[in-house]
Design goal:
Largest sheet: 5 strands, antiparallel
Strand content: 35-45%
Number of strands: 16
Shape: globular
Helix content: under 10%
Length: 191
């Protein structure tokens, strides 16, 4: 998974929706794709698929991206690659306002949120709504990390499920008078 050119089997779409906090009016909307599913992400999805047969869980995944966190960052050290880790994000500061838990009920399949234009019954969706107090800067990279990941954690703790660097036309600048809802969708379909 994670190829930037072959979309016959899957599509990885990121959606960023910036709204005025008082009125709820959409001020910026970006549908961005694809995001790179990392090597660790490939292994996680393979473990999920191999670990479930019917309703019996045979082997739980060793990676826990389903209990991970959404990341929006000011910058990045290297453009998206299959080996990206949490250390590729720059500008998260010691408070990590850009690294937040998923919204309640996420990740999920068959997302019904109409702001998520990348939703489909065959996709898993990760979602985070950033409040007026969080991530107030220009966002240039997004991804999914392990719970409480930092660049100082163990090698496993630094793993990313997915990673996306934004072009100049895709960046979003968030202020304290706005909320940001971010979605990452990973679509699985056969040929």
């Amino acid at each position: 998974m994670g190829s930037t050119t072959d979309h016959s089997k899957f599509k990885e779409t990121c959606v960023l929706v910036l709204k005025d906090a008082k009125t709820g009016r959409i001020e910026a909307f970006r549908e961005i794709g694809p995001n790179i599913v990392t090597n660790a992400g490939d292994k996680y999805y393979a473990e999920c698929a191999a670990g479930i047969r019917g309703s019996t869980v045979l082997t739980p995944p060793s990676r826990t991206f389903n209990a991970g966190m959404f990341v929006v960052a000011k910058s990045f050290t290297v453009a998206a690659t299959k080996v990206a880790t949490f250390g590729r994000f720059v500008g998260l500061t010691t408070t990590y306002s850009g690294r937040q838990l998923f919204d309640s009920g996420y990740p999920k399949t068959a997302d019904s949120d109409t702001d998520n234009t990348g939703r489909t019954v065959d996709a898993v969706t990760y979602k985070r709504t950033y409040t007026t107090a969080q991530a107030n800067y220009t966002i240039r990279a997004i991804g999914i990390c392990r719970l409480n990941a930092t660049s100082a954690t163990s090698v496993a703790g630094r793993e990313l499920l997915s990673y996306k660097t934004l072009s100049a036309a895709q960046v979003v600048t968030k202020t304290s008078s706005q909320t940001l809802t971010a979605y990452i969708n990973h679509l699985f379909t056969g040929v």
